[in-house]
Every structure is written in structure tokens, then in C-alpha cells.
Write a structure and sequence with these properties.
By secondary structure, this protein is α+β, with helices and mostly antiparallel strands. The chain is about 25% helix and about 35% strand. The chain contains six helices and twelve strands. Strand 6 and strand 7 form a beta hairpin. The termini are far apart.
């Protein structure tokens, strides 16, 4: 086998765009702010129960970053597609903190402001969005989420040859943790069903509550912490 010349190795390294080693995925979401009733609200979606991934869960508009897209492009495209809103009705303010998960994907997040008039005319994608609802920013600032910590423990392959890895015949694998946050929004105001007028479906949420949890809750908490004292 031919060994590359040093100059060729240098050129390959200089031209390389660094990326994670192994299988890795990238997603991007928009954290949307909406003025409603004279106050700022955060918009959340309730995912369609027919989706294969996370059906019926609360999320922000967003999805996988497609080839040739930037994270910002993906957040805008997914918001327009899911909410059925015009791109002109979405102002992307800037990039927020992002999440690197234990399950091999990175989730980018952008702060956006949705025009209330454009949102009132929007027709959400029924295939993806069961409804969307608004939570007052004031409520999110005043109510801390529940916080739980899950342990992440490696599960070695059954045929892994431990005798090659350690003189003891086993290995003390590094362990991690995953933080789970939960906001329980009572759903008393501004719940919006797909295609309804703003506020029309305020009391139609089953059970009167919406549970905002997981990565969506962590992004919410990060944003609230950023703006709490500004």
C-alpha cells in the first residue's frame, strides 16, 4: 500500500472540515416569541399523534438540517413548513445555546419573533402539528421546572473481548447523566388549535394542561436564564 507523501498529508489536513467521528446527526429549532394580549408569549407545538418520532409531545418548530443548509436556514424552513406561516412573518433574532446529546446528535436553537397577524392567518401542517399554544413568558420566568437526573450507563457488546482491553478482564466504563426538565403549563389561556383564531381554543386542551419536557424544556430554561436579569 502506498504511503502518502508528507505534503499530501498536510494538504489533506488543511482542506479537512472537522466533524464528529462516527454516526452523528444535526437538528435545529426555533424558539418563537409572540406578542399576544399586550404581553410576550412563547409558542409551542403539540406534535401530531400520527408521527413516528415523539408523537403527541410538545416541541418547538424544527427538524433535521438538510444537505447544504445552515442551522439557521433549517430553523426557518421548518417553522414555515410546520406552522404554515409566511417567512416574512418570522424574524430570526439570533442563535441561542445549543444541546449536545448523549444519543449522538446536536440540537441548535434560534430565537425568533413571529408576527401575530401573520400567525393568525397561518395554516399549520396537519401531518406534523396537532395544535400550537402560547405560554406567557412571565409564567416561564416565575415558574421553575421540575428537574430529574437520569444516569447514562454504557451497555457493552456481548462479544466484546475484555481480555484484550484490560488485564483484569473487565473495564470501568465512563458513565454520564442526562438532565430531564418538566414544565407543567396549566393551559388556561391562549391555547391555539390548528387553524383556529388566536385564543379561540383557549379552554380546549384535554385535561387543561400541557407538559413541556425533555430537550424543549431544557432549551426553554436556558433561554429564561439568559433573559431573567436583562
Amino acid at each position: 500500500m502506498k504511503i502518502p507523501a508528507l505534503d499530501a498529508i498536510k494538504n489533506a489536513a488543511r482542506a479537512n472540515t472537522p466533524k464528529p467521528i462516527g454516526e452523528y446527526r444535526y437538528y435545529s429549532v426555533l424558539l418563537p416569541l409572540v406578542f399576544h394580549g399586550g404581553a410576550l408569549h412563547v409558542l409551542y407545538e403539540l406534535r401530531s399523534p400520527d408521527l413516528d418520532v415523539q408523537p403527541g409531545e410538545v416541541s418547538f418548530p424544527g427538524g433535521a438540517i438538510e444537505a447544504g443548509e445552515t442551522p439557521r436556514d433549517a430553523a426557518l424552513r421548518e417553522t414555515v413548513e410546520e406552522l404554515g406561516i409566511s417567512a416574512d412573518g418570522v424574524e430570526i433574532v439570533g442563535e441561542l445555546d445549543y444541546l449536545i446529546t448523549y444519543s449522538n446528535f446536536t440540537l441548535y436553537c434560534f430565537l425568533g419573533v413571529l408576527d401575530a397577524d401573520a400567525l393568525a392567518k397561518a395554516v399549520p401542517s396537519a401531518a406534523e402539528v396537532a395544535e400550537y399554544f402560547l405560554v406567557p413568558l412571565k409564567w416561564l420566568i416565575e415558574n421553575e421546572p421540575e428537574v430529574y437526573v437520569n444516569r447514562v450507563v454504557p451497555e457493552p457488546a456481548k462479544d466484546l473481548p475484555f481480555e484484550k482491553l484490560s488485564p483484569r478482564g473487565d473495564y470501568n466504563w465512563r458513565k454520564g447523566f442526562s438532565t430531564v426538565m418538566i414544565y407543567t403549563w396549566p393551559g388556561q389561556v391562549t391555547c391555539e388549535a390548528a387553524g383556529a383564531e388566536m385564543g379561540e381554543a383557549a379552554d380546549k386542551a384535554p385535561g387543561g394542561t400541557r407538559v413541556i419536557w425533555g430537550l424543549t424544556a431544557r432549551l426553554t430554561k436556558s433561554f429564561v436564564d439568559l433573559i431573567r436579569d436583562v
